Amino acid sequence: MKPLGDVPWPPEQIVTERLILRETRTEDRAGLAELLSDATVQAYLGGPQHTREELEELIPHDPNTRPGIFAVEHAGEFIGRITIQRRDRAWSHHVRDEGDEVEIGYEFLPSTWGKGIATEATRAALDWIDRTLPGEPVVLTTQVANERSLRLAQKLGFVEVERFDAYGAEQWFGVLKTG
């Protein structure tokens, strides 16, 4: 995966009815550490790679080090993130011959699950992609076993392109339906 080198970052914050999508900030470090160390959140992403304490040491003081990561804020608190990046040509799964599609991913704290937060945030990010990179195909990959993520992808309008095995599990690869 590679950042969106063709897009100025960070963009203006995106405000929805309940959320703000913005660049990550120093005050997000604790929330990022919680997100990345939570076994439930990371269950379909290879599991937590570090403890929360380790992450609090590893996350840079200014975590806004890579373009393409929106912090999602609700009621003044960091609750998750949305990543937008180019799908590296080296991957074998693409929707266009040259690859390099825009890929979106999302991670939210379990306390937000079942409240429509992920849908609201991801729709806002998809609208931003459509305005910023009009006509670009947007893809998403999730484990088939991750039923919540798969339902969200389909609710957002992603349609299955193919399934494949990677990281010891069946993966679902979809593209955002346009028009």
Automatic annotation (TrEMBL):
Keywords carried by this UniProt record: Transferase
Pfam families referenced in this protein's UniProt entry, alphabetically: Acetyltransf_3 (PF13302)
Domain of life: Bacteria
Domain N-acetyltransferase: 19-179
Keyword match Transferase: yes
Protein name, entry field: GNAT family N-acetyltransferase
Organism: Nocardioides turkmenicus
InterPro entries the UniProt entry points to: Acyl_CoA_acyltransferase, GNAT_dom, N-acetyltransferase
PROSITE patterns in alphabetical order: GNAT
SUPFAM superfamilies membership: Acyl-CoA N-acyltransferases (Nat)
Lineage: Bacteria, Bacillati, Actinomycetota, Actinomycetes, Propionibacteriales
Molecular function in Gene Ontology: acyltransferase activity, transferring groups other than amino-acyl groups
